[in-house]
Amino acid sequence: MDDLQNPGASPNAMVVDGPEEHVVEPNGTESEDVAIINPPDQMETDTLLASDYEAMKAHVLQPLPEEPRILDDQVHTWTIENWRTCPKKEHGPIFYAGGYPWRILLFPFGNNVLDQCSIYLEHGFEPNAIPEDWSCCVQFALVLWNKNHPHIFFQHSAHHRFTKEESDWGFTRFLETRKMFNTVWENYDRPLIENDSANISAYVRVVEDETGVLWHNFNNYDSKKETGYVGLKNQGATCYLNSLLQSLYFTNAFRKAIYQIPTQHDENMTNSAYTLQRLFYQLQTSNTAVGTAELTKSFGWETRHIFEQQDVQELSRKLMERMEEKMKGTELEKVLPEMFSGKIKTYISCINVPYESSRIEDFWDVQLNVSGNENLLDSFQDYIQVEKLDGDNQYFAGDEYKLQDANKGVIFQSFPDVLHLQLKRFEYDIQRDAMMKINDRYEFPEEFDASPYLDKDADRSEPWEYQLHGVLVHSGDLNAGHYYAFLKPNKEGWWYKYDDDKVTKATKREVLEENFGGPYKLANGQVRPLAGKKGPLMRPNSAYMLVYIRKSRLDKILCPVTDADTPAHLQRRFEEEYAAREARRKEREEQHLYLGVKAITEATFQQHGATDLTNFDATPDQDPAAPRYYRVLRSASMKDVVAQIAADLDQDPKRVRLWIMVNRQNKTIRPDQPIMDLRPTVEETYTRAAAHRDQALRVWVEVAEEVNAEGNPVWPTYGGLANGVAVVKNDLILLFLKWFDPEAQALKGIGHVYVGKERKVEELIPIIMKKMNWEKLESDEKIQMWEEIKPNMIEALRGKQSLKAAELQDGDIICFQRIKDRKSKLSLSDKGDRHPADDAKSLDRAEDAREYYDFLLNKRTVAFRPHPQKCDAEAYPPFEMVLNGKMLYDRLSEKVGEKLSVDPTHLRFYTVNASSNNPRTAVKRQNQTLHNILVPANFAQLNMNQRNDALFFEVLDMSLAELDTKKSIRLTLLSEGITKEEQFDILVPKNGQVSDLIECLLKKAKLPSEGEAGPMRIYEISNHKFFRELSREYPVISINDYATVIAERIPPEDVEVTDPSHFIAVFQYHVEPSRTHGIPFRFLLKEGEKFADTKKRLEKRIGLKGKSFEKIKFAVVKRTHFSRPQYLTDDDILWDLAEQDDCLGLDHPDRTRSLRNGTGDLFLKG
Questions:
Q1: Catalytic (active site) residue 239
Q2: Which residues form the USP domain (predicted)?
Q3: What is the C-alpha separation between 359 and 567, in angstroms, rounded?
Q4: Number of H helices, E strands in the chain
Q5: Of 803, 681, 669, 801, which Cα lies nearest the Cα of 735?
C-alpha cells in the first residue's frame, strides 16, 4: 500500500456493517466467495480466553466448505500502547506464515469511516520484492482483546486470496469506537481497551490452492495459460450447447472421426460437419475462448433460437444423426454407432410355457430415473425391473398358449464404448400440473460395473467396467438456469470445469459431491438449514448428464489427437483467414495514415452503361465499370499518386493528368478542372476539392494523345508553365460521348473529345464517325444526339446550334445514336425530340436513347419467389427480372408468364412483408404500374412494412377472371385423431355446397374418396369450441369468413348415429375452462358405459397416447360461465351426468403454445 498515494486508506478494504452480518466491499456490494464471518457464540465465549491461542484458533477458524488442505497455522499478537495517540494508520511487526511475510494493518479511528476501528491483514513484502504472479490463500481471524483480562475480546474471521494486486483484506467496520473505550464491555465490569492499550492477535491459516483458482476473482484470468484449454463463448443462452460440445470435443475418438468427414469440396458455412470441424480445430489451437456462431448458423438457427435453452439430450441425438448422415457412404459410416450405440432388448417372457416376444433395438443414451433412487446403480436396477403380468393382466401368448402369466421388462444386450446417461432431473408434477426440477441427492460413482444389467447371453469376453469421463451440470430451476461441464480430458490427471468461456482445474469433491444435489452440508457433515424457513438449504446445481467410458477402451477413445489428424484444407483455410485478419488489422491501425483515391479511366467509362461517368459506390471486383481504387498515404504528393496510377495503367506518368470530380447542383458528378500543380499532398488536394461527399478523392484520369518533340504531353486545354501551375483555359471544352445501341438495348461509354465552343453540334458527326470507325451513313440514316443533363433530364441537341448556345461545358455528356431518317424520328433537324411511347411494347424496348434513359430512370430489379404455401418451389424456383417500373399489371403478368412458361392470366402476385419476408396481401388486378405495386401511394406516410424489390407469385389452376367466381375457404384437415393438422386453401364455386367443398378438398389433399375411406364431416369452431356442423347441402357462400373450418373423416362408430343428442361437444382447456386451446370435436356417448371405457375410446379418438394422454383430466363443463368443472372418475357414467348443451372438457396444458410463440422443436439444418 502506498501511503503517499492513498493516505490512511486500504485499497482492498472490506466494510462490515455489523459484527454478525456480512462482509462487503467498499462500494457496498456483497463479496461472493471471498470472506466468511463467524460471529462469536456467547455461550462459548463466556469461558474462552484470547490468550489460549489453541482454543481460540479452533473457535475463530471454522472448517471451510471447500475443505482445502492446511499448509500452515500461525498466531501473531501485537500489543498497542497509547491507542489514543496512535497515528492515523499503523503497521504491526512482520511475522511469517506459510513461508511468506505478514503484518497487521490498523486504522485506530477508522479508514475513511466515522466512529469505527478498521483492522486488516496484509502481506509484508517490500513493494519491489513481491514475486510475479504471487498468490496465497488464507483463512484468517483478527481478535482485539484486553491484554490484562483475556476473556474480554472481539473478533472477525474471513478468507481471501492475497495477490500482488489485492495485498490486504479485512474489516473497515471492525468495531465501533464508542464500544471500545470507557464503556463496560457487554456482561463484564471493564472496557475492551483499558489503560489505552490492547492486543490484536492475527490467526493465519495458509491453505493449499489445489486448483489454482481457490477464491479467485477471475479478473484477467487466462484459461489457456492456467489449464492449457480454452472455453466457448455464450451467444445468449447457449451454455447447454457449450457443455455438450466440450464433452464431445474431449471424446477424442469422436473428434478424430469428425476431422475425417470429407469436407474439402464443401467448405461451406451451411455445412454443419465443416463448421464443427472448424470449431474443434479452434478449440485445439486458439489461445482465447472460441465462438459457436458459425456452428449455430449452419444449424439454421436464428437469433431467437440462441436465446432459448433446449434439451441437451435432444440436441445430442440430433447432432449425432446429422454427423451420421455426413458419414454415410464413407469408411466412417459405422464409427459413431460403434462408439455411442448399444443394444437393448424389450421382452415379454411367459413363466409357465416356452413362449417369449422380444424386440432388440439400438440406443444412444439411457434415461435414468432420479426420483425414488439414491444412486446410479439403483436407477439401473429400476430400469431393468421386471413387471409381472398375471390375473386380469395376463399376456395373450397366441392361439397355442392363450392367456399366460408372464414377465415384462427390458435388459441390455450391450453397452457402447462411450455411455451417455441422461438423469431425469425434470419431471411432470401432477399436483402442480407443471414440469419441476428434482433436487434430491443422487450419487454416482467414479467407476462402476455394468455387467449386472446385461442379458445372461451377452458377450463378457471383456469386463463391462466403466470410468467417469464427464459430468454435465444444471444449476437453477426449470425456468432459469445455467449449464456447465466437468470433464477429464486424459485417462489420468486433473478434472477441469468448463463454464462457457472459462476453464479451471477442479477437485474430485467439486466433480462428485457438489453435483449429487440435495441439501448443502456443513464441513462437519450436518445439513445447512435454510435461513428463516423450515427445511434444509438445497443445492441449485446437480448433474443431469453423465459420460462414462469403458475402461478397456479408454486408450482407444482418449487417443491423442495431433496436427496430423486435422484436415490439411482446414489448417490451410485458417492460415489464410489469419493472414487476412492480420492484414485487415494492420489496415485498420494504419487507416488514419491513408486516403482512398477513386479514379475513372477510359476503360471503366467504356464499361459504364448507366447515367453519369460511373457509380462511385460500386467496387471493381464486382463491377468492371466501377472506378479504380488506390490506397495512398495522405502525406504522398500528387506526383506520387499520378505515378502510381500511371504504372497501373502502363502509361508514362508525364502523359497522365488527373481532373478533380465535383458535385454539380443537379446532383451529377463531373470533371471540373485538371490538377496542374502536383506538389501538394493528397490530403491537401482532397481538402481543397469543393463539396466532396465521399471519403475518397475522386478523379478522372486523362491520358495525353499527343507528345511534342521533347516527349512532353500536349494538352488541348489548361496548358502548363514550367513550374507546373496552370495557365488560363482556352475556348475548348471537354465532352464525353456515349453511344446507344438499339439492337443490344445498351448504353456504352465511347470516350472524350475536345471541341471549340463556337463549333456547331453537327460538326461533332465526323468526330463520332471516326471514334466509331463508321465509314459512312446510309442514305436514309442520321445521327441523333442528346445531352445527358441529369438522369431525368435528357434534351435533344439541334444540329445548327453552337455548343456555346447549347450551354455545353467541361464534363458534359453527349449521347448519340444512328437512326433511320423517318418523320416519326427526330434527327439533327430543328424539330425537337419525341416523347416515349406510352404503349406496353415501348416499355419493353427503347427505340431511341431518350426512351432508354427513361427506362434507366424507372427500371427495377424485382425478386420473384414462389408463394411458400400456394406454389411448388421445385417446379417454379425463385428468379430475378429487370423490369420497367411503368409497366402495367397485365404486362407484368406477361413478362413473368414468359419466364415461367405459364399462362399469364393464371398468375397472382403478393406483396412481401419487409420484417418477416412472408407474403402479405394479394395484388389486385387493376390499371396500376409495377412501381405503384411495389411502392404504393403514401408509402412513406403510412410507414408500410412492405419490401419494394420483391413479389411472391402463385400459379393458379384457373384464370384470375374465373377465380372471381370462386370462394376461397381456409380449411384445417384433421388426421391421426386431432393431433395432426394440415392447412388447405380450397377454391369452391360461389354457388357450390359443402359437398363440393369436400370433393375439392379430397382432390387437393390427394385423399381417397368418401366411398373408399368413409364420409367426411365439415364443422365450424370459434374460440376453440365446437360451433356447428355444416350439412352437405349448406351453401359455401354462407360460410363465415372469420370462423375456423375443420374437416375430418367421420369415425366409423359415429356414421350410423343420426340423433344429435347422442353426441357431446368436447373442448380442451388448462385449469380454467375459459383458457381454451386446441381443436374441439364431437364425441359419441354410449348409454351405461363407465368412464374408464369411455377414456379408451377417447384415447383413440384424440390420437394422444401414453403419458400424454394420462396427464389429461376430464370434466363435465356446464354452459353457464360461473359453474365449476365436474371432474370425472373411472366409475362415472358420462351418459347419465351430461345434460343437453353440456360439454366434455379436457384439462391439460397447451403443448403447442411454444410453437405459436415462435419457439418450435429443436432442429439442425446444415
A1: yes
A2: 230-551
A3: 41
A4: 32, 52
A5: 803
Q: Which has more confidence, 1150 or 515? A: 515
The model carries a pTM of 0.64
Strand order in the sheet with 781-790: 746-756, 732-741, 812-820, 781-790, 793-796
Element (H, E) at 511: helix 508-511
Q: Is residue 1121 among the annotated active site residues?
A: no
User: What pLDDT, in 10s, does the model give residues 633-651?
Assistant: 999 999 999 999 999 999 9
Using alpha carbons only, give the angle 96, 102, 108 rounded to the nearest 5 degrees.
135
8 A C-beta contact, residue 1081 and residue 1048: yes
Report how far residue 1078's alpha carbon sits from residue 980's, in angstroms, rounded to the nearest whole number: 11
∠ CA 653-657-658, nearest 5°, is: 120
Catalytic residue among 123, 159, 482, 608: 482
Q: Which residue has the cell 431511341?
A: 848
DSSP element (H, E) containing 571: helix 568-589
**Dist. CA 820–CA 777, nearest whole Å:** 10
Sign of the alpha-carbon torsion through 722, 726, 732, 737: positive
Phi and psi based region of residue 476 (left: phi greater than 0; alpha: psi -120 to 50; beta: remaining): left
User: Percentage of the chain with pLDDT > 90?
Assistant: 47
Q: Which residue of the set 117, 136, 239, 815 is catalytic?
A: 239
- Tens of pLDDT, residue by residue over 438-488, are 888 999 999 999 999 999 889 999 999 999 999 999 988 877 788 999 999
Q: 586: how many CB neighbours lie within 10 A of its CB?
A: 10
Long-range (24+ apart) CB contacts under 8 A made by 688-697 are: 689/660, 689/662, 690/662, 691/662, 691/663, 692/662, 692/663, 693/663, 694/598, 694/616, 695/596, 696/595, 696/596, 696/597, 696/598, 696/629, 697/595, 697/596, 697/597, 697/598
1017 bridge partner residues:
1048
Phi-psi sector, 1006: left (phi>0), alpha (psi -120 to 50), beta:
left
User: Which of 680-694, 839-853, 986-1000, 1089-1103 has the weakest average pLDDT?
Assistant: 839-853
- Tracing cell 374441439 back to the chain, one arrives at 1080
Query: 899: buried, middle or exposed (CB in 10 Å: 19+, 13-18, 0-12)?
Result: middle
Distance separating alpha carbons of residues 1036 and 1033, to the nearest angstrom: 9
Q: What is the DSSP letter of 1124?
A: P
Q: How far apart are CA 88 and CA 98, in angstroms?
A: 30
pLDDT tens digits, one per residue of 223-274: 888 899 999 998 888 888 889 999 999 999 999 999 999 888 888 888 888 9
CA gap 99, 88 in Å, rounded = 30
User: Dihedral of CA 223/227/229/232: which sign?
Assistant: negative
Long-range contacts of 92-101 (CB under 8 A, 24+ apart): 92/200, 92/202, 94/124, 95/124, 95/202, 97/72, 97/73, 97/138, 97/204, 97/205, 97/206, 98/71, 98/72, 98/74, 98/136, 98/138, 98/204, 98/206, 99/72, 100/124, 100/125, 100/136, 100/206, 101/125
| pLDDT tens track for 1089-1102 | 999 999 999 988 88
Q: Which three cell numbers stand for residue 266?
A: 464443401
CB 475 within 8 A of CB 206: no
Strand order in the sheet with 342-350: 356-363, 342-350, 406-414, 387-389
Q: Which of 230-234, 316-320, 652-656 has the lowest mean pLDDT?
A: 316-320
> Which residue is listed with cell 465501533?
176
Query: Of 611, 619, 656, whose CA–CA distance to 638 is shortest?
Result: 656
Strands 966-975 and 1044-1049: parallel
pLDDT category of residue 10 using cuts at 50, 70 and 90:
very low
Nearest to 911 by CA among 860, 948, 868, 943: 948
SS3 of residue 1082 by DSSP: strand
Using DSSP's 3-state secondary structure scheme, residue 679 falls into coil
Which residue, 757, 687, 682, 681, is CA-closest to 716?
Answer: 757
Task: Report which of 177, 256, 208, 198 is spatially closest to residue 71, judged by C-alpha positions.
Answer: 208
